[in-house]
Write a structure and sequence with these properties.
Layout: H1 2-11, H2 13-28, H3 33-41, H4 46-58, H5 65-78, H6 81-96, H7 104-109, H8 111-127, H9 131-145, E1 147-149, E2 154-155, E3 160-161, E4 167-169, E5 174-175, E6 180-181, E7 186-188, E8 200-201, E9 206-207, E10 212-214, E11 218-219, E12 224-225, E13 230-231, E14 239-242, E15 247-251, H10 257-260
Parallel strand pairs: 1-4, 2-5, 3-6, 4-7, 5-8, 6-9, 7-10, 8-11, 9-12, 10-13, 12-14
Antiparallel strand pairs: 14-15
Length: 269
């Protein structure tokens, strides 16, 4: 048994840590034993646990948990990138969210993480041409989590969405790696055009609560968008923008805004 745990820790350290934390949580709070066993400890891999958790959260009278689990299992088996991205997302939440103290928490309790994983399966379905199922995932994700991400949007690894209420990401939006955003962020269009019409967010960007980024514009790598801003024009890399409409107010203030999560506007920063 000890050898098996050692091998797991080497091969999949994120999943090994989640398993250890799950057992500790059961020991500390036996009333949650059933949920934690079904969500984590009964599963041999993180892929199976993700399938189970997504299915439990999105199941409804219109589509059963069993069918959703089969769809998710198929997606994870077909595209290993989905679970690799999920691992990066867990680490991102743990490192950036001061309310997150264990790897276990995003998987069990954080709707931002759960919504992103549901989106990743929906995106896989969309790319397979199974668009009605993809839209079903989008609908249920919006209904359950208050997060509306079009399944054709492209989102990278290491994403942290804090609180995650009222997030909207449009069909042609692109979000790079290691992006952090807070609640009520919109990556939207500006009209009824049907072509490429949504923002392109670079790597390492921090988007504050309530910010709206509208139109087919690029937000450069490692930039900051202040809370409540409305961004209608391109944002250069490593800059801070604020206001309605947003204007450049200084440098980003650090090399990795999405990791530092520093949202304070300082003179010259």
């Amino acid at each position: 048994m000890a050898e098996t745990k050692t091998n797991l820790a080497i091969l999949d350290p994120v999943w090994a840590r989640i398993m250890d934390e799950a057992q500790e949580a059961v020991d500390a709070e036996p009333l949650l034993g059933g949920m934690i066993h079904y969500s984590v400890l009964h599963h041999p891999t993180i892929e199976r646990a993700l399938s189970y958790r997504t299915a439990v959260k999105l199941a409804s009278g219109e589509i059963s948990e069993q069918i959703l689990r089969e769809i998710c299992d198929e997606a994870y088996a077909s595209d290993p990138e989905l679970a690799l991205a999920a691992r990066a997302d867990i680490v991102a939440v743990y490192e950036r969210d001061p309310a997150c103290h264990r790897f276990l928490q995003p998987l069990l309790f954080f709707k931002g993480f759960q919504a992103i994983q549901a989106y990743r399966v929906a995106n896989w379905l969309y790319r397979q041409g199974r668009r009605d199922l993809a839209y079903l995932f989008q609908m249920r994700c919006s209904e359950v989590f208050g997060v509306d991400i079009h399944p054709n949007a492209r989102i990278g690894r290491g994403i942290m969405i804090d609180h995650a209420h009222s997030i909207v990401i449009g069909e042609t939006a692109v979000v790079g790696d290691n992006v952090s955003m807070l609640h009520s962020v919109t990556l939207g269009g500006t009209g009824k055009e049907e072509e490429d019409r949504h923002p392109k967010i670079g790597d390492g960007v921090l988007i504050g609560a309530g910010a709206k980024v509208l139109g087919n514009i690029r937000v450069g790598d490692c930039s900051r968008i202040a809370a409540g801003s409305v961004v209608l024009e391109e944002v250069p890399s490593c800059k801070t923008v604020a206001g309605v409409p947003a204007r450049i107010v200084g440098e980003a203030g650090c090399a990795q805004p999405s990791i530092s999560m520093d949202q304070i506007l300082r003179s010259g920063a």
